Amino acid sequence: MLSRLQQGITLGLLLAAGLWAAWFSFTGSPHLAWFGALLIMFGYALFLALEFAFLRMVNRADPAPPASAKQLLRAWWGEVLTAPQVFCWRQPFRSRAIPDWLPERRGEASRGIVLVHGFVCNRAVWNPWMTRLRAQGIPYIAVNLEPVFGSIDEYVHIIERAVELMEGATGRAPVLVAHSMGGLAVRAWLHRFAADHRVHRVITIGSPHHGTWMGRFVHTRNTREMQLNSAWRQALAEREPSERHAGFTCFYSHCDNIAFPASTATLPGADNRHVPGVAHVHLLFQNEVFSEALRWLESPKDPKP
Predict the structure, then answer these.
(1) Can you give the CATH number for the domain in which 232 is found?
(2) Sign of the alpha-carbon torsion through 158, 159, 160, 166
(3) Tens-digit pLDDT profile for residues 64-83
(4) What is the pLDDT of residue 302?
(5) Backbone torsions φ then ψ of 200, nearest 5 degrees
(6) DSSP output for 98-142
(7) Is 127 within 8 Å of 94 (Cβ atoms)?
(8) SS3 state of residue 38
(9) Residue 286 falls within a domain, yes or no?
(10) pTM > 0.90: yes or no
(11) Which of 19, 42, 223, 288 is most deeply packed, by most CB within 10 A?
């Protein structure tokens, strides 16, 4: 569903830009033709700039280290380059280009990874990860969380199925790596299935564990659950045992343009890792995040039931 929606948006933008350029070139206004076409194609950069203005304002009261103007500019530019690769190419047109990979025989491969994406994403956001994991012979499953605009609680059975498949294929508890909303979905899964003993480590990347200021602008069911004072999120936190978060590594950034205030992406008792100068989607592709996942794959100790 999401890939078709994003295909339509991408092709619609290309068509609109082409028609604008053609019309104003035909009417003798080449400068207006090019300006309008570029604005249609790259207007998202202005929207991103507005998000960064909001995060700088909101983060003033946050305990995370303040971002400098240079760090914010660098993060904005990184997101400008990353966003079209994800939302206009990989997710619309490459969602099934890289299949999941599991060993043919149980116990023949290393511990595996289950990859859980965030809001308005699909499994293709993980394509660079999957390419690297396959090259190293590491089993992985990347889920699609659907319905796209449903409750986060509806995603727990999708995660459960992926974990079951990985357990059956490797005989070992997997590492779960989750971006953005995916971190909340993993926490909901842990509660629903009392699954602490079935996961080796949870790594979250820019996950709004305490809600996000940006949640006020979108009113789908899952974004309402991610608002700062949502009853859903508060109930989830109240149900969790205090020791659970010790099994989490949480990556966050003072330049995250979606999960802010910045410390919203941390958990008490977790290994919280601040990555300076990196925005929300770009954070997913930082080498230190990927290296942390590999480190836990090599850790021999499984959690006790």
Answers:
(1) 3.40.50.1820
(2) positive
(3) 999 999 999 999 999 999 99
(4) 52
(5) -80, -40
(6) S--B--SSTTSS---EEEE--TT--GGGGHHHHHHHHHTT--EEE
(7) yes
(8) helix
(9) yes
(10) yes
(11) 223
Residues 118 and 68 in one domain: no
Q: Verify that 79 and 119 share a domain, yes or no.
A: no
Whether residues 75 and 178 fall in one domain: no
Model pLDDT, residue 303: 46
Domain boundary among 93, 127, 157: 93
pLDDT band for 300, please (50, 70, 90 cuts): low
Residue-level pLDDT at 98: 97
* Cis-peptide into 147, omega within 30 deg: yes
Give the Cα separation of 77 and 73 in Å (integer). 6
What is the domain range of residue 273?
Answer: 113-297
The residue assigned the tokens 């954070």 is: 283
Give residue 110's pLDDT.
82
Domain count, the chain: 2
Query: Has residue 54 been placed in a domain?
Result: yes
Asked, as a colleague might, if the bond just before 241 is cis with ω within 30 of 0, I would say no
How many residues does this entry show for the chain? 305
Cα dist from 99 to 88, 123, 132, 194, 274, whole Å:
20, 10, 13, 29, 31
